[in-house]
Amino acid sequence: MTRKGQLMTSLEADWVMKVAIAATLSDENIDPEESVRLRMLAYLNPMYREVESVDDYILDCVRRVRSAGPWTIGAKAAKKLDMPLRELAFSWAAEMIYAADDIHPEEHEFLSHLAGDLEIPGELAGKIMAVSGIRNRTQEKSGAKGTC
């Protein structure tokens, strides 16, 4: 994957994943919906094409994030990622928070803290969180009845 003609490094891909995992761990557990979403983000993103086992990769990242502490990851990632990748990492974190049916208050607090650490402007952070919430509405929550 390139951005502005540069290849993304595996280190950058690792930090994007660690930020997403930190969001899942902000309430100290990984819900089944969050676990599925982590794997899907990795499977669908070319950054992780060379990863032999997505499950093993994610488990390794989970161990590293737990060891460092989820609330420390944003500041560390900000030192390693440029702004477009910080925005991507924040959007992945929001996707993870909104993947679960129940959103805990500490998860909202974590996203606010993370936006500050990653230097995501408040208006943009709000838009990313709103879109993530909309994207993750279930039929039951939205009242939609699919007919296909």
Describe the overall structure:
It is built from eight helices and two strands, in the order ββαααααααα. The protein has 148 residues and is mainly α. Helix 1 packs across helix 3 and helix 1 packs parallel to helix 5 (83-99). The relative contact order is 0.16.
Core attributes:
2 strands, disordered N terminus, two-stranded antiparallel ribbon, 148 residues, mainly alpha, single chain
Write a brief structural summary.
The protein is mainly alpha-helical. The protein is built from eight helices and two strands, in the order ββαααααααα.
Helices and strands in order:
Elements: E1 2-3, E2 6-7, H1 10-24, H2 32-44, H3 54-68, H4 73-80, H5 83-99, H6 105-117, H7 122-135, H8 139-142
Antiparallel strand pairs: 1-2
Helix pairs in contact: 1-2, 1-3, 1-4, 1-5, 2-5, 4-6, 5-6, 5-7
Assembly context of the chains? single chain
Shape: globular
Report how far apart the termini are: 34 Å
How much of the polypeptide forms β-strand, as a percent range?
A: under 5%
* Helix and strand sequence: EEHHHHHHHH
| Total E-strand runs | 2
**Averaged pLDDT:** 86
What's the Cα radius of gyration? 15 Å
| Helix coverage percent | 55-70%
Lateral arrangement of strands in the main beta sheet: 1-2
Number of helices: 8
Uncertain ranges: 1-8
Biggest pleated-sheet summary: 2 strands, antiparallel
Based on secondary structure, the structural category is mainly alpha
